[in-house]
Write a structure and sequence with these properties.
Length: 632
């Protein structure tokens, strides 16, 4: 997503704009055209919500009313007719109902009266229908708005289905494409929380709701299905998912965003569960895949860009049957073919989940059940199948891998996330006067520079790193920190024409130069500011963290206290935007107790280099532990 998908009038926003990438090709535009001459309706398409006016079908015609509506209208008509008869009796002779009496006197006048009575009945019935439509009798009155966050791969299909819903629906659905990585932020955003969510798999639904500490409320276990496949121009027979993960140059999505990203891991885990592979086979394969992904993943990495790459090269990609179907539809002459490992595939089941606040939960459930019925039958079901999906439960021609204990996936994904999720960190380095002290032939600052440069070499290209220096009033009166370099991808091009990796190395050398050292240590204010900086610019596709290197204790008399710092870190904790603080104490002078408390408050780790010579080893080990932990 740039980083998000959102409709212009949506009541909630995603924070990413990473779409399937297929809409650029124009696919689906014909499916969303209105019938010629149809009245204006809500837009259905990649950029807009799906809406119908009350009382209209998708073609714009007034829909036939349900039985309750006809009964209400008929009742009004009968009342009106009764009033007309009473008025006629008053004008008649007083015996009978008056019509026969007047007809005897004048046949022509009787016919006129019968016509007038019939007209009154018609007017009453039409009036009753109008009243029913306005919600005075029967019907729903104003429609209840329902916001739906849908995985980008199914957004258009859901929007198209809602446009086909009967005009007597009591709900006005708005469908917004939201990547899985952005859903935790929405679920903790208060007013922007969607009423319903369509993730691409039950696994993702469980993982996200657990992350934000919410109970999983499933309205429908599946509204669509599609198997995971391997696509490419030269994809041959595959035995298992470990073999897939070791394919040269393989591209797959980020498991935080989409279940196609973690499908190879889930598939391999199922094979381990069945005794066909060992756990060591799985970990080794994940390590290989992580290295390939981290060094090869582009900034704009989505289903569309990966399929385009596969279509123009020999690069294999993990995708779904549905995404491949859409791609080949819009790319005539494509040479892409698909393959599924002999052991079986992993199905994506697209559940419908109630994510509404408690005040709207009942409404969301009712709206969700109506939507699920539409999506699994009639015109709504055709929207799903026309978009390349299978109907729920359709596994024809497939061997589906399943786990005996689905909770095993959590451990495997935690291992994957350590390896496969790229790092985004702010490195904050002490420039107080004590950093000029020597240990042997080099100062602590010089040793820190060496450790930082060594650490930079360990990070893969898609790592995002920024640098700060800190000391009392380092950034000016009242500010203890100063930016050396912004947080950017290491392979990004700098203003000088080099890479950000080169620019950051130069900034570290300059920031810790002898002329920059001096003053006291402004630890607490700097730590809080760094935490807020990373959290405010949080990127859900990355593991977000702060690394602090210091050789002293807080010496700013005007700063917050340790207790206040820990309290604020606790208050700022957000399960949708987790930020870890890793601390590295340099020498015996470091306030190791405070550093441990700071790291622990955020779920991070604290390291200590007891001598200056240990700085490089500790710093490098801290990075290596983050990069390689799951592979050991």
């Amino acid at each position: 997503m740039g980083r998000h998908f959102s409709d212009s009038d949506s009541e909630f926003d995603g924070s990413r704009s990473d779409s399937s990438g297929l809409s650029d090709s124009g696919h689906g535009a014909d499916d969303r055209r209105q019938s010629p001459g149809a009245p204006a309706q809500g837009t259905v398409g990649p950029g807009g919500p799906s809406r119908l006016r009350a009382g209209q079908t998708p073609s714009g015609r007034q829909a036939a009313q349900p039985g309750s509506g006809r009964a209400a209208a008929g009742g009004r008509g009968e009342q009106s007719t009764s009033r007309g008869n009473r008025a006629t009796r008053k004008a008649g002779s007083g015996d009978g109902f008056g019509f026969e009496h007047r007809e005897a006197r004048s046949g022509r006048r009787g016919v006129w009266l019968w016509s007038a009575a019939a007209l009154l009945v018609i007017i009453a019935i039409v009036g009753g229908i109008a009243i029913w439509k306005s919600g005075v009798v029967g019907g729903c009155g104003d429609r209840t708005p329902v916001n739906i966050a849908a995985d980008p791969s199914i957004r258009d299909a859901v929007a198209d289905a809602t446009s086909k819903m009967s005009s007597d629906s009591c709900y006005d659905y708005t469908v917004t494409a939201v990547a899985g990585a952005d859903v935790p932020g929405l679920l903790t955003s208060g007013d922007k929380t969607p009423d319903l969510w369509v993730p691409d798999s039950s696994q993702q639904a469980r993982r996200v709701t657990t992350q934000v500490r919410r109970e999983l409320d499933t309205v429908s276990p599946s509204i669509a299905a599609t198997p995971t496949v391997v696509a490419g121009t030269r994809v041959g027979r595959l035995s298992n998912w470990v073999e897939v993960m070791k394919l040269d140059g393989l591209r797959a999505g980020n498991p935080i965003d989409t279940s196609t990203g973690d499908a190879p891991i889930v598939g391999a885990l199922a094979e381990v569960d069945a005794g066909k592979l060992t756990n060591d086979d799985l970990v080794d394969a994940m390590t290989v895949l992580a290295v390939q992904q981290n060094n090869a993943r582009l900034a704009n990495d989505n289903e569309g860009t990966r399929l385009n790459l596969a279509n123009t090269s020999s690069t294999p990609v993990v995708t779904t049957e549905q995404q491949l179907t859409l791609f080949t539809r819009t790319h005539p002459g494509s040479k892409l073919t698909s393959s599924i490992p002999a052991d079986g595939t992993v199905m994506l089941d697209y559940p419908l989940v109630n994510t509404a606040p408690s005040s709207r939960s009942e409404t969301a459930t009712a709206a969700g059940k109506e939507l699920a019925d539409t999506l699994t039958s009639g015109d709504g079901a055709s929207s799903i199948t026309d978009a390349g999906f299978r109907k729920p439960g359709d596994t024809k021609g497939l061997t589906v891998l399943a786990l005996k204990d689905p909770s095993q996936v959590d451990k495997a994904l935690r291992q994957w996330q350590v390896l496969g999720v790229p790092i985004r960190t702010l490195v904050v380095e002490d420039t107080s006067g004590s950093m000029a002290e020597k240990d042997g032939d080099e100062t602590r600052a010089q040793l820190t520079i060496g450790a930082s440069l060594m650490g930079l070499k360990l990070f893969p290209n898609n790592t995002e790193i920024g640098g700060w220096a800190f000391g009392v009033n380092k950034g000016g009166p009242g500010q203890d920190w100063k930016e050396l370099s912004p947080i950017r991808r290491l392979d990004a091009t700098s203003a000088s024409g080099g890479t950000h990796r080169d620019e950051l190395a130069a900034a570290v050398r300059a920031g810790l130069a002898p002329s920059e050292l001096g003053g006291g240590t402004g630890l607490y204010d700097t730590t809080l500011a760094a935490f807020k900086k990373v959290q405010d610019s949080y990127d859900p596709s990355y593991s977000n963290s702060v690394i602090i290197l210091t050789d002293g204790q807080n010496e700013d008399p005007n700063s917050i206290t340790l207790r206040q710092l820990l309290s604020q870190l606790k208050r700022l904790e957000d399960p949708a935007r987790p930020v870890l603080v890793l601390t590295i104490g340099i020498s015996e002078d470091a306030d190791t107790e405070s550093l441990e408390q700071i790291a622990r408050a955020t779920g991070g780790t604290s390291y200590v280099a007891k001598t200056a010579n240990d700085i490089q080893t500790v710093f490098v080990d801290a990075i290596r532990a983050r990069v390689e932990a799951a592979g050991r």
